[in-house]
Amino acid sequence: MSLTSRIKNNKEFREIISKISPIKEDYINLSGKTPFSNEYSYLVESDLPHAGDSSLVGMAFDCLARFRIGQVTKNTDAGQYLTALSGMKKLQRKTLDFKLTDEYYVPLHTAVYDFIKNNQELTDDIMLVALRLAKLEQFFRMRVPKNFDKNEFLTIQRSDILISDLKELMVVFEERFVSDGIVNEKSEVIFNPSFGISSFLVDGADADVIVDGVLYDFKTTGNFKYDSKDSLQLSGYFLLNQFLREIEDKNFIMFGLNYDKISFEKVCLYKARFGEFECFDFGVVNEELLSDAVISLAKYFDTNPGRLNTIFLAAPLTDPEDYKDAIHSIAIKNKTPQ
To answer: What is the span of the domain harbouring residue 94?
Structure first.
Protein backbone atom coordinates (compact mmCIF):
# COMPACT_ATOMS: atom_id res chain seq x y z
CA MET A 1 0.00 0.00 0.00
CA SER A 2 1.74 3.19 -1.21
CA LEU A 3 1.49 6.60 0.44
CA THR A 4 -1.45 7.65 -1.73
CA SER A 5 -3.22 4.31 -1.22
CA ARG A 6 -2.69 4.48 2.53
CA ILE A 7 -4.09 8.01 2.67
CA LYS A 8 -7.12 6.87 0.71
CA ASN A 9 -7.79 3.59 2.48
CA ASN A 10 -6.52 3.93 6.05
CA LYS A 11 -8.52 6.31 8.23
CA GLU A 12 -6.05 6.37 11.12
CA PHE A 13 -3.12 7.21 8.86
CA ARG A 14 -5.14 9.84 6.99
CA GLU A 15 -6.15 11.55 10.24
CA ILE A 16 -2.51 11.81 11.31
CA ILE A 17 -1.56 13.50 8.03
CA SER A 18 -4.62 15.75 8.34
CA LYS A 19 -3.22 17.26 11.53
CA ILE A 20 -0.78 19.35 9.52
CA SER A 21 -2.43 19.37 6.08
CA PRO A 22 -3.21 22.86 4.75
CA ILE A 23 -6.72 23.78 3.65
CA LYS A 24 -7.60 25.74 0.53
CA GLU A 25 -7.22 29.15 2.19
CA ASP A 26 -3.69 28.36 3.41
CA TYR A 27 -2.17 28.27 -0.08
CA ILE A 28 -0.71 31.13 -2.06
CA ASN A 29 -0.41 31.37 -5.82
CA LEU A 30 2.87 32.67 -7.26
CA SER A 31 0.95 34.57 -9.95
CA GLY A 32 -1.05 36.48 -7.34
CA LYS A 33 -4.33 34.91 -8.41
CA THR A 34 -6.65 33.34 -5.88
CA PRO A 35 -5.54 29.71 -5.54
CA PHE A 36 -7.86 27.04 -6.96
CA SER A 37 -10.17 29.64 -8.49
CA ASN A 38 -11.86 30.47 -11.78
CA GLU A 39 -9.35 33.31 -12.12
CA TYR A 40 -7.19 30.72 -13.85
CA SER A 41 -7.05 30.60 -17.63
CA TYR A 42 -6.79 27.37 -19.61
CA LEU A 43 -3.53 27.50 -21.53
CA VAL A 44 -3.78 23.87 -22.66
CA GLU A 45 -7.30 22.51 -22.96
CA SER A 46 -7.95 19.07 -21.53
CA ASP A 47 -9.76 17.38 -24.40
CA LEU A 48 -8.11 13.96 -24.75
CA PRO A 49 -10.57 11.50 -26.33
CA HIS A 50 -10.09 8.59 -23.89
CA ALA A 51 -10.01 8.59 -20.08
CA GLY A 52 -6.87 6.43 -19.93
CA ASP A 53 -5.00 8.96 -22.07
CA SER A 54 -5.06 11.52 -19.28
CA SER A 55 -3.13 9.25 -16.95
CA LEU A 56 -0.60 8.40 -19.65
CA VAL A 57 -0.05 12.05 -20.57
CA GLY A 58 0.33 12.96 -16.90
CA MET A 59 3.10 10.41 -16.38
CA ALA A 60 4.78 11.31 -19.68
CA PHE A 61 4.71 14.99 -18.75
CA ASP A 62 6.37 14.18 -15.42
CA CYS A 63 9.15 12.49 -17.37
CA LEU A 64 9.60 15.32 -19.87
CA ALA A 65 9.58 17.98 -17.16
CA ARG A 66 12.33 16.26 -15.21
CA PHE A 67 14.33 15.65 -18.41
CA ARG A 68 14.11 19.35 -19.25
CA ILE A 69 15.16 20.28 -15.70
CA GLY A 70 18.06 17.86 -16.16
CA GLN A 71 19.09 19.74 -19.29
CA VAL A 72 18.94 23.11 -17.56
CA THR A 73 20.99 21.92 -14.57
CA LYS A 74 23.23 19.63 -16.67
CA ASN A 75 22.25 16.72 -14.44
CA THR A 76 21.80 13.31 -16.07
CA ASP A 77 20.37 11.95 -12.80
CA ALA A 78 17.08 13.11 -14.28
CA GLY A 79 17.10 9.91 -16.32
CA GLN A 80 17.79 7.61 -13.36
CA TYR A 81 15.51 5.76 -10.93
CA LEU A 82 12.49 5.86 -13.22
CA THR A 83 9.45 3.89 -12.10
CA ALA A 84 9.28 2.66 -15.68
CA LEU A 85 12.12 0.26 -14.91
CA SER A 86 9.98 -1.44 -12.24
CA GLY A 87 7.23 -1.69 -14.84
CA MET A 88 9.70 -3.27 -17.25
CA LYS A 89 10.67 -5.89 -14.66
CA LYS A 90 7.01 -6.64 -13.99
CA LEU A 91 6.42 -7.05 -17.72
CA GLN A 92 9.31 -9.49 -17.95
CA ARG A 93 7.96 -11.58 -15.08
CA LYS A 94 4.51 -11.63 -16.68
CA THR A 95 5.71 -12.64 -20.14
CA LEU A 96 8.85 -14.60 -19.14
CA ASP A 97 10.58 -12.65 -21.89
CA PHE A 98 13.75 -11.58 -20.14
CA LYS A 99 15.23 -9.98 -23.24
CA LEU A 100 12.73 -7.13 -23.04
CA THR A 101 14.98 -4.93 -20.91
CA ASP A 102 17.77 -4.96 -23.50
CA GLU A 103 15.40 -4.78 -26.45
CA TYR A 104 12.94 -2.24 -25.13
CA TYR A 105 14.00 -0.37 -22.00
CA VAL A 106 17.71 0.18 -22.68
CA PRO A 107 17.07 2.10 -25.94
CA LEU A 108 14.60 4.32 -24.10
CA HIS A 109 17.09 5.00 -21.32
CA THR A 110 19.84 5.73 -23.84
CA ALA A 111 17.60 8.20 -25.68
CA VAL A 112 16.88 10.03 -22.43
CA TYR A 113 20.57 10.19 -21.51
CA ASP A 114 21.47 11.57 -24.95
CA PHE A 115 18.63 14.11 -24.75
CA ILE A 116 19.90 15.47 -21.44
CA LYS A 117 23.64 15.16 -22.00
CA ASN A 118 23.61 16.67 -25.49
CA ASN A 119 20.92 19.28 -24.76
CA GLN A 120 18.83 18.04 -27.67
CA GLU A 121 15.65 19.65 -28.94
CA LEU A 122 12.28 18.54 -27.60
CA THR A 123 11.20 16.52 -30.64
CA ASP A 124 8.33 14.14 -31.29
CA ASP A 125 10.80 11.27 -30.84
CA ILE A 126 11.69 12.15 -27.24
CA MET A 127 8.01 12.70 -26.48
CA LEU A 128 7.27 9.21 -27.78
CA VAL A 129 10.06 7.93 -25.53
CA ALA A 130 8.37 9.64 -22.57
CA LEU A 131 5.04 8.05 -23.52
CA ARG A 132 6.64 4.61 -23.66
CA LEU A 133 8.23 5.15 -20.24
CA ALA A 134 4.87 6.34 -18.96
CA LYS A 135 3.26 3.19 -20.35
CA LEU A 136 5.69 1.08 -18.34
CA GLU A 137 5.08 3.13 -15.20
CA GLN A 138 1.34 2.74 -15.75
CA PHE A 139 1.83 -1.00 -16.05
CA PHE A 140 3.77 -1.09 -12.77
CA ARG A 141 0.89 0.62 -10.98
CA MET A 142 -1.99 -1.38 -12.46
CA ARG A 143 -3.38 -4.86 -12.04
CA VAL A 144 -2.47 -7.15 -14.89
CA PRO A 145 -5.52 -8.21 -16.92
CA LYS A 146 -6.11 -11.93 -17.42
CA ASN A 147 -5.96 -11.72 -21.20
CA PHE A 148 -2.70 -9.80 -21.40
CA ASP A 149 -1.16 -9.08 -24.80
CA LYS A 150 2.43 -7.86 -24.57
CA ASN A 151 2.52 -6.47 -28.09
CA GLU A 152 -0.76 -4.64 -27.65
CA PHE A 153 0.49 -3.20 -24.38
CA LEU A 154 3.72 -1.91 -25.90
CA THR A 155 1.79 -0.07 -28.61
CA ILE A 156 1.03 3.59 -27.91
CA GLN A 157 -2.49 4.21 -29.19
CA ARG A 158 -3.33 7.69 -30.53
CA SER A 159 0.31 8.77 -30.12
CA ASP A 160 -0.12 11.74 -32.47
CA ILE A 161 -2.87 13.21 -30.28
CA LEU A 162 -0.93 12.57 -27.08
CA ILE A 163 2.26 14.10 -28.49
CA SER A 164 0.34 17.19 -29.59
CA ASP A 165 -0.99 17.60 -26.05
CA LEU A 166 2.47 17.12 -24.54
CA LYS A 167 3.95 19.72 -26.89
CA GLU A 168 1.52 22.36 -25.64
CA LEU A 169 2.10 21.42 -22.00
CA MET A 170 5.86 21.69 -22.46
CA VAL A 171 5.59 25.11 -24.12
CA VAL A 172 3.86 26.38 -20.98
CA PHE A 173 6.37 24.57 -18.75
CA GLU A 174 9.26 26.17 -20.60
CA GLU A 175 7.81 29.62 -20.03
CA ARG A 176 6.65 29.25 -16.42
CA PHE A 177 9.25 26.90 -14.99
CA VAL A 178 12.38 27.64 -16.99
CA SER A 179 12.14 31.12 -18.50
CA ASP A 180 10.61 32.56 -15.33
CA GLY A 181 13.53 31.20 -13.30
CA ILE A 182 11.95 28.55 -11.08
CA VAL A 183 14.87 26.38 -12.16
CA ASN A 184 18.23 27.59 -13.48
CA GLU A 185 21.65 26.13 -14.19
CA LYS A 186 22.77 26.68 -10.57
CA SER A 187 19.67 25.16 -8.99
CA GLU A 188 20.07 22.33 -6.49
CA VAL A 189 17.77 19.55 -7.66
CA ILE A 190 16.74 16.16 -6.29
CA PHE A 191 14.82 13.98 -8.73
CA ASN A 192 12.25 11.54 -7.35
CA PRO A 193 13.13 12.33 -3.73
CA SER A 194 12.46 9.40 -1.42
CA PHE A 195 12.39 9.29 2.34
CA GLY A 196 14.40 6.27 3.41
CA ILE A 197 12.77 4.12 6.06
CA SER A 198 9.67 6.33 5.94
CA SER A 199 9.08 5.39 2.31
CA PHE A 200 9.69 1.74 3.10
CA LEU A 201 7.09 1.82 5.89
CA VAL A 202 4.37 2.94 3.46
CA ASP A 203 5.52 0.67 0.61
CA GLY A 204 6.64 3.57 -1.52
CA ALA A 205 6.58 7.35 -1.42
CA ASP A 206 8.59 9.31 -3.94
CA ALA A 207 7.77 12.83 -5.03
CA ASP A 208 8.40 14.43 -8.44
CA VAL A 209 11.26 16.84 -7.80
CA ILE A 210 12.78 19.22 -5.26
CA VAL A 211 14.23 22.42 -6.71
CA ASP A 212 16.12 24.81 -4.43
CA GLY A 213 14.40 23.48 -1.33
CA VAL A 214 10.87 23.44 -2.73
CA LEU A 215 9.07 20.16 -3.40
CA TYR A 216 7.07 20.35 -6.64
CA ASP A 217 4.30 17.97 -7.62
CA PHE A 218 3.23 18.14 -11.26
CA LYS A 219 -0.48 17.89 -12.09
CA THR A 220 -1.94 17.78 -15.60
CA THR A 221 -5.55 17.78 -14.47
CA GLY A 222 -8.00 20.10 -16.18
CA ASN A 223 -9.68 20.78 -12.83
CA PHE A 224 -8.51 23.96 -11.12
CA LYS A 225 -10.50 23.35 -7.92
CA TYR A 226 -8.98 22.44 -4.55
CA ASP A 227 -8.59 18.69 -3.98
CA SER A 228 -7.90 17.57 -0.42
CA LYS A 229 -6.17 14.42 -1.75
CA ASP A 230 -3.44 16.56 -3.32
CA SER A 231 -2.95 18.49 -0.10
CA LEU A 232 -2.78 15.29 1.95
CA GLN A 233 -0.23 13.85 -0.48
CA LEU A 234 2.06 16.87 -0.16
CA SER A 235 1.63 16.83 3.61
CA GLY A 236 2.45 13.13 3.63
CA TYR A 237 5.74 13.75 1.86
CA PHE A 238 6.65 16.46 4.33
CA LEU A 239 5.68 14.46 7.42
CA LEU A 240 7.47 11.33 6.24
CA ASN A 241 10.61 13.39 5.75
CA GLN A 242 10.25 14.91 9.22
CA PHE A 243 9.86 11.41 10.62
CA LEU A 244 13.00 10.28 8.79
CA ARG A 245 14.96 13.22 10.19
CA GLU A 246 13.74 12.36 13.69
CA ILE A 247 15.14 8.85 13.27
CA GLU A 248 18.41 10.29 11.95
CA ASP A 249 18.60 12.48 15.04
CA LYS A 250 18.55 9.27 17.07
CA ASN A 251 21.79 8.34 15.26
CA PHE A 252 20.35 5.24 13.62
CA ILE A 253 22.48 4.74 10.51
CA MET A 254 20.69 3.95 7.23
CA PHE A 255 22.67 1.04 5.83
CA GLY A 256 21.89 0.23 2.23
CA LEU A 257 18.60 2.08 1.84
CA ASN A 258 18.38 4.48 -1.08
CA TYR A 259 17.27 7.80 0.37
CA ASP A 260 18.13 11.45 0.21
CA LYS A 261 19.22 13.46 3.24
CA ILE A 262 16.99 16.34 2.37
CA SER A 263 15.35 19.22 4.12
CA PHE A 264 12.41 21.15 2.74
CA GLU A 265 9.52 23.11 4.16
CA LYS A 266 7.86 24.52 1.04
CA VAL A 267 5.64 22.43 -1.22
CA CYS A 268 4.02 23.43 -4.47
CA LEU A 269 1.48 22.04 -6.91
CA TYR A 270 2.30 22.96 -10.50
CA LYS A 271 -0.91 22.90 -12.55
CA ALA A 272 0.50 22.29 -16.01
CA ARG A 273 -2.62 23.14 -18.04
CA PHE A 274 -2.88 26.54 -16.36
CA GLY A 275 0.78 27.32 -15.69
CA GLU A 276 -0.10 28.08 -12.07
CA PHE A 277 1.81 27.37 -8.85
CA GLU A 278 -0.15 26.67 -5.65
CA CYS A 279 2.25 26.73 -2.71
CA PHE A 280 2.33 26.20 1.04
CA ASP A 281 5.13 26.74 3.56
CA PHE A 282 5.16 24.22 6.42
CA GLY A 283 7.45 26.62 8.25
CA VAL A 284 4.32 28.35 9.52
CA VAL A 285 3.00 25.17 11.16
CA ASN A 286 3.08 25.26 14.96
CA GLU A 287 6.12 23.30 16.19
CA GLU A 288 4.16 21.52 18.91
CA LEU A 289 1.50 20.48 16.38
CA LEU A 290 4.21 19.15 14.06
CA SER A 291 5.93 17.31 16.90
CA ASP A 292 2.62 15.75 17.91
CA ALA A 293 2.04 14.59 14.32
CA VAL A 294 5.50 12.97 14.18
CA ILE A 295 4.84 11.16 17.48
CA SER A 296 1.41 10.02 16.24
CA LEU A 297 3.03 8.70 13.07
CA ALA A 298 5.59 6.80 15.16
CA LYS A 299 2.78 5.29 17.25
CA TYR A 300 1.02 4.23 14.07
CA PHE A 301 4.15 2.56 12.65
CA ASP A 302 4.95 1.05 16.05
CA THR A 303 1.74 -0.99 15.81
CA ASN A 304 1.61 -1.16 12.00
CA PRO A 305 5.18 -2.01 10.93
CA GLY A 306 4.07 -3.36 7.56
CA ARG A 307 6.98 -4.99 5.71
CA LEU A 308 9.59 -3.76 8.16
CA ASN A 309 10.64 -7.33 8.97
CA THR A 310 11.64 -7.79 5.31
CA ILE A 311 13.88 -4.73 5.26
CA PHE A 312 16.93 -7.00 5.38
CA LEU A 313 16.14 -8.07 1.82
CA ALA A 314 16.38 -4.45 0.63
CA ALA A 315 19.36 -3.57 2.79
CA PRO A 316 21.33 -6.69 3.88
CA LEU A 317 23.50 -4.78 6.37
CA THR A 318 20.48 -3.32 8.13
CA ASP A 319 18.92 -4.75 11.29
CA PRO A 320 15.13 -4.24 11.37
CA GLU A 321 15.27 -4.22 15.16
CA ASP A 322 17.27 -0.98 15.07
CA TYR A 323 14.44 0.69 13.20
CA LYS A 324 11.79 -0.82 15.45
CA ASP A 325 13.63 0.52 18.49
CA ALA A 326 13.96 3.95 16.89
CA ILE A 327 10.27 4.08 15.99
CA HIS A 328 9.24 2.96 19.47
CA SER A 329 11.48 5.55 21.14
CA ILE A 330 9.77 8.30 19.14
CA ALA A 331 6.32 6.85 19.83
CA ILE A 332 6.79 7.11 23.60
CA LYS A 333 8.47 10.51 23.41
CA ASN A 334 6.88 13.17 25.62
CA LYS A 335 5.55 16.30 24.06
CA THR A 336 7.54 19.50 24.49
CA PRO A 337 6.63 21.02 27.89
CA GLN A 338 4.43 24.08 27.79
So the answer is: 50-157
